[in-house]
């Protein structure tokens, strides 16, 4: 798997940098070329001489090294190799990556690269568990950066233990191999190549007057993760998104809408699709007569009456479409009680093939959170899936959908 691969190894400043020497050896044993980049911090822990001797390559350290820039340059370092591996990755380096700071060679390479990035964090357990770091890691994962570790155990500092140790070199090697294996599988024949997948995501906003609206707590994380997973599986993806605070997924055509009515229109305009996944939390009602001016208090102490009317059901509309119903139509059911019965009822009423049911009672933390525990309800039964993060749920739904499409084609 690693034979002939060129890996840029970024070593940042932490005591775990001494393990990077062994890591270089292990990667080279497997036939990889290892091109080291060291931060100033890293050079406090290991010397460029040792790193250079083990890698048998030039060691890059300075962004403004005229020789190195002339010869290779940070853009070529970032682009001409197969993988950027960061070991150890300090909390500081991860934070800089989140914000796109490029104040040394390592961070400039990371900002300029279009290659896969694998990070092996190493830091004190308190630093790892700091919400700032956890949030940074989640953001980087959302951008497709992969992580190995950290592991738990004794720290170099006396009396400190917990999660924060850099993974052992052989574990990092295994994670590197897994990354290349996934990449090879993707290139080998993507399961949804040639298919169009249409996905709705996020909440809808239903205006009350020019400044107020009705909304819900949907973050769009699950729908956006599905769009990314469908693209990774080779599909052409259209994402119809309500207002969310997420970036548009790369390589996905994203249509931005506000209301349920606009969402339905955008969905219909983007049919036909082979697979449609309605992950949006569409508002069930809208205000019957949207005020053209801001509603003012009238001094009576009585709140205004808001008459609501039901919104169109997008999933049901598509499910009953005569000619344009997608071959595989997937809905979600967010419930706080009678999960399975309600999901089954939705499956029938909306003429969907699958309902991905989840319990969104506030104590589950699913709404707006990163994890999801779901049940897949179809005509043939109910499958229980373990708790997974929303990206893994997305990948598994897309895998199952691809399998269903190929079973369909075969029968
Ligand atoms: N849905 C939709 N259009 C609507 C309401 C829901 O397309 N106006 C879709 C959602 O995207 C989801 C599924 O229908 O895939 C179920 O959504 P949910 O809110 O759980 O169900 P509702 O039909 O709104 O039923 P209720 O709120 O009464 O549980």
Top keywords for this entry?
single chain, 411 residues, alpha/beta, Rossmann fold, 2 domains, 8-stranded mixed sheet, 5-stranded parallel sheet, 37% helix, 23% strand, elongated, binds cytidine-5'-triphosphate
Secondary structure layout plus pairing:
Layout: E1 6-11, H1 17-29, E2 33-38, H2 42-45, H3 48-55, H4 66-71, H5 73-79, E3 83-89, H6 91-99, H7 105-112, E4 117-121, H8 125-129, H9 131-142, E5 146-147, E6 151-154, E7 161-165, H10 169-187, E8 196-201, E9 206-209, E10 212-214, H11 221-232, E11 236-241, E12 253-256, H12 260-269, E13 275-278, E14 285-287, E15 308-310, H13 314-319, E16 328-335, H14 339-350, E17 354-359, E18 371-372, E19 374-378, E20 381-384, E21 388-389, H15 390-410
Parallel strand pairs: 1-2, 1-3, 3-4, 4-5, 8-11, 8-13, 11-12, 13-16, 16-17
Antiparallel strand pairs: 6-7, 9-10, 14-15, 17-19, 18-21, 19-20
Helix pairs in contact: 1-3, 1-10, 5-7, 6-9, 11-15
The site of cytidine-5'-triphosphate (CTP) has 15 residues, from helix 13 and strand 16.
